[in-house]
Amino acid sequence: MIRAISTWMCKVSAVTRTRAIWCETARASAVLVDITGQNPNVALQLGLVHALGRPYRVVAQGDPEKANFPSLAKVQIHRYEGAPGFAGLAEAVEELLESAVRARPTR
Question: Domain coordinates of the chain in residue numbers?
Fold first, then answer.
């Protein structure tokens, strides 16, 4: 019985997490996607970003080839270094914000 409850709670938790990722992505004007570590939730968020048509930049710490999901082979990945300074990350964020401003509808 405990195992069944534990499994059910994990499924509920996954649904809640997916809903939260959807809500936050839908509210965003632009999304910075860091694929360092190949987290499946990040892959989900990138798919939602594509579906919603939001401006995005994909970044990875260190060698992008090692951090890359196989399905992202044709996606441009902006490389950045770790602390101190996180070289390369500021440029990716700046490009992302500029594209988000250009993509905003005029009133």
Answer: 2-103
How large is the average pLDDT for residues 58-82? 77
Neighbouring C-beta atoms of residue 59, cutoff 10 Å? 23
> Could you write out the three-class secondary structure of the chain?
CHHHHHHHHHHHHHHHHHHHHHHHHHHCCCEEEECCCCCHHHHHHHHHHHHHCCCEEEEEECCHHHHCCHHHCCCCEEEECCCCCCCCHHHHHHHHHHHHHHHCCCC
Nearest Cα residue to 77 out of 90, 94, 61: 61
Tell me the pLDDT tens digit for each residue of 29-48: 888 888 888 777 788 888 88
Which two tokens mark 14? 């996954």
Spatial contact of 62 and 55, defined as CB atoms under 8 Å apart: no
